[in-house]
């Protein structure tokens, strides 16, 4: 069994060596988890989970774990379930924390909060061409996929992929003479392949790229001082805030698009 030392005040004990130990000492009550154990338990589903991110959600009044007399956080099974719901709604539904807090306070469940689009993926009539609603970590680009794999998984034509590179929508990279694309680029190709079925060509996508570049610059300006900080903890918190801002911006853009298209449907 590994020994314990506090990571810093309020974080609870973190194992120094040996296998992870999920339960706190018996005096803290059964089934209670330290914040470090919660991170380990959720890391497989949420690779970007961290102690600082959980603490940030607590600061935003989304979590309220029990505290020991010594100040250590103790998470019950209900706390962990609530945290998992919050993280899923951020990742899959692009919902800002304010909305998640309001919905959970109203007693709504994860399935009730999730949009119909997420509950029932769009049918395109082609295997593997369904458009997924997913978010990707700003900090990591994920795995790489060869051009052959991307074409097979997305149903996109090679000519379309080349066109997207030509117009700067994706970049790609060469490895041993073979073009590869990261997870975000793969999903961009998947989405564009679906748009192409309606006659949208690569050159028409410049408006999306320009809009994304402008939004990116705006969000970077908001958090510029913290993003340039030499303090690793402050910079991590800034990146997490940037991901939350990106989710808010994406949600707002969706709402504005729906508003404008609703006029056409009248």
Descriptive report:
- With 266 residues, the protein is mainly α.
- The protein has two domains: 4-115, Multidrug-efflux Transporter Regulator, Chain: A, Domain 2 (Orthogonal Bundle); 121-203, Multidrug-efflux Transporter Regulator, Chain: A, Domain 2 (Orthogonal Bundle).
- Helix content is 52%, strand content 8%.
- A three-stranded antiparallel beta sheet has the order 5-7-6. A two-stranded antiparallel ribbon has the order 1-2. Strands 3-4 form a two-stranded antiparallel ribbon.
- α10 crosses α12 (232-265).
- The protein starts with a strand and ends with a helix.
- Residues 1-29 and 116-135 have low confidence and may be disordered.
């Amino acid at each position: 069994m590994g020994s314990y030392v506090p990571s810093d005040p309020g974080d609870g004990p973190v194992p120094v060596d040996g296998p992870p130990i999920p339960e706190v000492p018996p005096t803290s009550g059964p089934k209670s988890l330290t914040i470090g154990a919660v991170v380990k338990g959720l890391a497989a589903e949420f690779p970007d989970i961290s102690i600082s991110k959980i603490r940030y959600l607590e600061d935003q009044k989304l979590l309220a774990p029990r505290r020991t007399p010594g100040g250590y956080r103790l998470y019950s099974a209900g706390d962990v379930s609530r945290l998992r719901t919050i993280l899923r709604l951020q990742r899959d539904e692009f919902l800002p924390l304010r909305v998640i807090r309001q919905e959970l306070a109203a007693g709504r469940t994860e399935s009730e909060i999730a949009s119909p689009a997420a509950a029932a993926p769009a049918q395109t009539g082609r295997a593997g061409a369904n458009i997924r609603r997913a978010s990707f970590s700003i900090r990591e680009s994920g795995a790489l996929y060869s051009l052959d794999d991307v074409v097979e998984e997305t149903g996109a034509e090679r000519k379309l992929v080349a066109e997207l590179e030509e117009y700067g929508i994706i970049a790609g990279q060469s490895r041993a003479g073979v073009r590869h694309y990261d997870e975000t680029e793969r999903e961009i190709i998947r989405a564009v392949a679906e748009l192409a079925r309606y006659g949208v060509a690569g050159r028409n996508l410049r408006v999306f790229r320009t809009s994304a570049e402008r939004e990116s610059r705006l969000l970077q300006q908001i958090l510029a001082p913290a993003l340039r900080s030499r303090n690793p903890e402050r910079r991590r918190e800034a990146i997490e805030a940037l991901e939350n801002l990106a989710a808010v911006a994406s949600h707002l853009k969706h709402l504005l698009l729906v508003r404008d298209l609703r006029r056409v449907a009248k």
